[in-house]
Amino acid sequence: xxxxxxxxxxxxxxxxxxxxxxxxxxxxxxxxxxxxxxxxxxxxxxxxxxxxxxxxxxxxxxxxxxxxxxxxxxxxxxxxxxxxxxxxxxxxxxxxxxxxxxxxxxxxxxxxxxxxxxxxxxxxxxxxxxxxxxxxxxxxxxxxxxxxxxxxxxxxxxxxxxxxxxxxxxxxxxxxxxxxxxxxxxxxxxxxxxxxxxxxxxxxxxxxxxxxxxxxxxxxxxxxxxxxxxxxxxxxxxxxxxxxxxxxxxxxxxxxxxxxxxxxxxxxxxxxxxxxxxxxxxxxxxxxxxxxxxxxxxxxxxxxxxxxxxxxxxxx
Length: 316
Hints:
Elements: E1 2-8, E2 13-14, E3 18-27, E4 30-31, E5 35-44, E6 47-48, E7 52-55, E8 81-84, E9 89-90, E10 94-97, E11 113-116, H1 129-153, H2 155-167, H3 169-203, H4 210-252, H5 261-275, H6 280-308
Parallel strand pairs: 1-3, 2-4, 3-5, 4-6, 5-7, 5-8, 6-9, 7-10, 10-11
């Protein structure tokens, strides 16, 4: 059995083994064979004919969480950890895992009592300086390769995004937040529209189109999510790095800033160095992503407005 709570009342009987996983267990009845429990709290008042193996939690400082559901039966209150009543009986051995050692009344357990400390599931990972350096180098190579591909395939777009960011840095930062919100909203709208359209098609007896609608909707969600993920992981950083490299090279020699390769290389190297700084690097990475997304959003908005603008012919 599995759930929030299980209760074996006095006089109840399980003819074989009892295996349970959940939040709490109160067992006042009889278990003919073995008992295996993984729960925050286990209270044993009855008898077990065989062995007991249990994994239990630790005492809580506050009240136990309660389970609320309309029509749910009343549930007992079981303390966290392992509670064994003096009237309980275990015909075999007791093997329990807990950070604390619990008091087991004498004469309750016929066999051996064994206490195990829980294994640490997640240990703090210590990263050596060499591993950190390797990780930064891998990030540098990945950004350079993708960046070189971008400036080769769409050099005009790269410059336009950099120009938009240079002209409007603060609006770009705000538009970065707006772009994230818009993309999340678009994903939600596509999902809701897909579900509603599938339901409507089912109601009007066009069930053969439901599968097509679902496939198209899922493909649209997947495509948008992948494009957005690539933009956050690479494109936004590449555009901002390109602008940063162009500004730095422009201070040294104007002609160097006119190319496509060296501004990208200088900017990406600088970006990787800055984001490698502990604590501050994460903030710099966030700002760069928001700036790149915002510049793309502003440029897309401007292009949309230009296409919607209708030239007015002068009247003669």
